[in-house]
Amino acid sequence: MPWTRDDMTARAARELKDGFYVNLGIGIPTLVANHIPPGVQVTLQSENGMLGMGPYPFEGEEDPDLVNAGKMTISELDASSYFNSAESFAMIRGGHIDLSVLGAMQVAANGDLANWMVPGKMVKGMGGAMDLVAGVKRVIVVMEHCEKSGRSKLVRECTLPLTGKGVVDLLITDLGVFEINRGRSSVRLVELAPGVTLEEVRARTEADFVTDLA
Amino acid sequence: MATKIQSDAASALAGLLFDGMTVMAGGFGLCGIPENLILAIRESGVKDLTVVSNNCGVDGFGLGLLLENGQIRKMISSYVGENELFERLYIEGRLEVEFTPQGTLAERIRAGGAGIPAFYTRTGVGTVVAEGKETREFDGETYLMERALKADLSIVKAWKGDAEGNLIYRKTARNFNPMMATAGRVCVAEVEVLVGTGSLDKDMIHTPGVYVHRILKGPAYEKRIERLTTRPRTEKASA
């Protein structure tokens, strides 16, 4: 069985280390917060201006002045702090955030990432994604391995407009885990989802990759 | 000294609006937006606006009101995913958009208010954002030159303010408001609570009054929530 979204985000959560400052992208990466391993304490940064993001508020305690980057109501923790957008991106751009987990439309073998627009079809904007990939120390992408059409999203070269060049460190899909290493070496398949075969991954992947897995 | 305090949003904007002007509007999504000033701009009918704002409200609220009223010619934004009309107008070529990465947008505004004409950033190198822009190497790394942003008018929303124009924001409603307050030729601030001079904690002021030219207490705040997410009281699960 390929991994579900929950499985993928649980796998991504295993990359968290105690004491990390972490930014989770909107959408699927948000689920990583549900799987933080026991004994690991991380501080979640929300790029709209908060460190120490808490869980969703209890019903009736929602505050319109307290939202995350996905505009969802959240809560604060004892350790939380608030700041403006320029300060927030100084943290991000300045290399003070340890890890970012993002979604993607395409990841290329050279570490390029495309996740912000499909020309003529879907135009939402890049939000903070370009800043995150430019400044955060380690970038993990969580995405479905293929489009609904079956086309591989791990590609030789991105055909969609880029979010960043050579920025992806690790890719987690429903089929497995790939070290991308920002394109500094060959893409390496390091883990298969349970029941997924190497042949299946090869058949469904456009980019070339190496592996020690049988 | 003439008072900065205005009785309402319309009089706070009197003499400041003209067709073709550039307006900065604070807020992130619908959080921390100057609701009353946006309504007054809609009522004024001013048009061909270039609006600098991280988002463009939603259909029917916030800056979405100016969009559906045909008052906006160009947006400088980072993300418009919540607004169907925006996406449609843009794809149909009826709205000009300068997509700017969120951190670059914040810094361009900060620079504009701080007298810094341009700066270099790694953000956007090798992407369409870099097209037509100067690049330069520093310590073996390529950076992109981004220009500062200023506006004819900035409209911001704070939680508390006083007659001097000192402002305090609340939680994540701060976002772009402090930088925008510095980058408008004129800055008009609306607040939920207007207090007497001396009653704000001087160490806790986020925007010093020098940046704020006019201030008003908003008559009402809808503070619409864009995506209501809660957890039940019985369960201990986290977000």
Class by alpha and beta content of chain A:
alpha/beta
- What are the secondary-structure elements of chain A, in order, as H or E? HEEEEHEEEEEHEEEEEHE
Helix content of chain B: 10-25%
Beta fraction of chain B: 25-35%
Total count of strands of chain B: 12
Which two chains touch over the largest interface? A-B, 60 and 62 residues
Stretches with pLDDT under 50, minimum 5 residues of chain A: none
Poorly predicted parts of chain B: none
- Number of discrete helical segments of chain A: 4
Characterize the largest beta sheet of chain B: strand count, sense, and whether it forms a barrel. Answer: 9 strands, mixed
Over the alpha carbons, how many angstroms does the gyration radius of chain B reach? 19 Å
Strand proportion of chain A = 15-25%
Separation of termini of chain B? 51 Å
Q: What does this protein structure show overall?
A:
The complex is a heterodimer of chains A (214) and B (239). Chain A is of the alpha/beta class. Chain A contains four helices and 15 strands. In chain A, strands 4-3-2-1-5-10-12-13-14-15 form a ten-stranded mixed β-sheet, with helices on both faces. In chain A, a hairpin with a 4-residue loop joins strand 6 and strand 7. In chain A, helix 2 (85-93) runs parallel beside helix 3. In chain A, 49% of the residues are buried. The model of chain A has no long low-confidence stretch (mean pLDDT 96). By secondary structure, chain B is α/β, with parallel strands linked by helices. In chain B, the strands form two sheets. In chain B, strands 1, 2, 3, 4, 5, 9, 10, 11 and 12 form a nine-stranded mixed β-sheet that branches. In chain B, strands 6-8-7 form a three-stranded antiparallel β-sheet. Chain B is globular. The mean pLDDT of chain B is 95.
